[in-house]
Amino acid sequence: TTVFDIDNNKKYFIEHHINHDKDVYPEPPSRTPVEDRQSSLPNPALILSKLFYYSVDLPVTTFRDIVEGIQSGKKSHYYHQKFRRVPELTQCQEGDYVCYYEAEMQWRRDYKVDQEIVKVIQERLRACQQREGPSYSQNCYKELQQFEQVSKAFQSRYGDLGAYASARKCLMKQKERMMAEQQQA
Amino acid sequence: MVGMSLLRTAAAFTARLNPLKRTCQSSNLLSRTVARSEQVVVRYGSHGKRMFIIKPTDFYDRRFLHLLKYYILLAGIPVAALVTFVNIFIGESELAEIPEGYEPEHWEYYKHPITRWIARTFYDSPVKDYEKMMALIQMEAEKAEMSQWDSHMPPGFHPKYLKLCSEDEQSFYRFGTTWGQLQLEVRRHMREKGDGPWFQIQTLDKNLIDHSPKSSPDN
C-alpha cells in the first residue's frame, strides 16, 4: 500500500491563502505517493517549486507583511448596507408614483442579488468540475442539479427582459407565465 | 563521398582557371596559394566612416511620442505615487458587522480610502438622492394631476389644491371661481415655483416699457 502525503509547499499555500468555506469547496484527497527515490538525479518538480517559492512567493509575502506592519492599528471598517423591505409593485395604489419608484428600486436590488446568487452557484459547479476531473458528471451530481434549478428559475423570472428591464416588465412577464400555465391546466 | 570531394576540387580548379575571372596571369595558377595584393585592410581608430544615411524624416513621429509620454507622465506619475502611498500607508478597510444601534455614515459602506473620501467630500448620501428623487416625482405627479382636472367639476372642491392655499384663499376658492381664474392662479404658482428655465429668471415689470414712438431708433 502506498502512503499519501501533501507536498510541503502546497501545505504552505493552503495555510496562508484560505478565504472560502472549506465545506463548500473541499480539498480533493491528495493522490501523490510519498517519494521513494532510487536515482541520484535531482527532482525537477522540486527544483521548480523551490524556484517559484524563492523568486515569487517569498518576496510577495514579505512585502505584504511589511505593508501590514506599517498599517497596523487604526483600522477603519466598512459595512454591507441593509435595506428595509418596501411594498412591491403589486401592493401600490394606481397613480402613486412614489410607491412605484420605491418598488422599482427594490426590484433592481433584488435583481442584482439574484445575479450574484447565480454567479455563486456557477462558481461552485466550476470548482467541483475542476476537482473531480473527467468523472464530474457523476461526482458533482448535487451541484449540477442545484445549478440547473437555479438557472431555470432565473431564466423564467428575469430571462428575456433585456437591458431596459424594469419591475413592470417583470410583472408583465409573470402575468404571461401565469396565463400560459392556466391555459395548459 | 570521395566523389563529392573530387568534384569540389575540380570545380574550384576550374573556377580559378576561368579566363573571365583571372586577376593575374602569373605562375601560381596550379598551386593553391592566393596572390597577395598590395591593398591593406583599413583599421579605424574611431567608430568607422561616418555615413550620411538618407531616410524619410522621423522628426514628427519622435516629437509626437515624446509629447505623448510627457503629457501622460505629467499627471500619471503624481497620481500613481498618490495611489501607492494611500494603499501602503492608509490601506483598505475591513468588513465588519454593523454594531447594534449604530447607523453608519454613507461613506462607511465603501472599502477603498479614496472612494470613501470622494463619497464623504463630494457626493450626497444615496438616502438623500433617493429622497430627492421621490420629492421630484411627487411634485411632477401633483402638476400632472392639476393639469388634468375634470372641467365639469367646480374647482373649489378639489382637496389637493385647497391644501396649497392659505385660509382666506381657501374660503375665496371654495365658492364663485371659474376655471379660467383657477388656471391663471395655477400658472402664477408655476411661475413662482419654477417650471422651466424661462420662469426662473426674474425680469423687470413689463409695464415699465415705454412703447411711445421715439425720435431716434437707438433711444
Description:
The complex is a heterodimer of chains A (185) and B (219). Chain A has 185 residues and is mostly helical. Chain A is built from 6 helices and 1 strand. Chain A is flat and about 85 Å long. Chain B is an all-alpha fold and 219 residues long. Chain B has helices at residues 2-17, 59-90, 113-121, 126-147, 159-162, 167-174, 179-193, 197-200; one strand at residues 94-95. The model of chain B has no long low-confidence stretch (mean pLDDT 80). Classes of the chains: A mainly alpha (185), B mainly alpha (219). Strand 1 of chain A pairs parallel with strand 1 (94-95) of chain B.
Write the layout of secondary structure elements.
The complex is a heterodimer of chains A (185) and B (219).
Chain A: H1 8-16, H2 44-70, E1 77-78, H3 97-132, H4 136-139, H5 141-158, H6 167-184
Helix pairs in contact in A: 3-5
Chain B: H1 2-17, H2 59-90, E1 94-95, H3 113-121, H4 126-147, H5 159-162, H6 167-174, H7 179-193, H8 197-200
Short description:
The complex is a heterodimer of chains A (185) and B (219). Chain A is mainly α and 185 residues long.
Keywords:
heterodimer; A: 185 residues; 61% helix; flat; disordered N terminus; B: mainly alpha
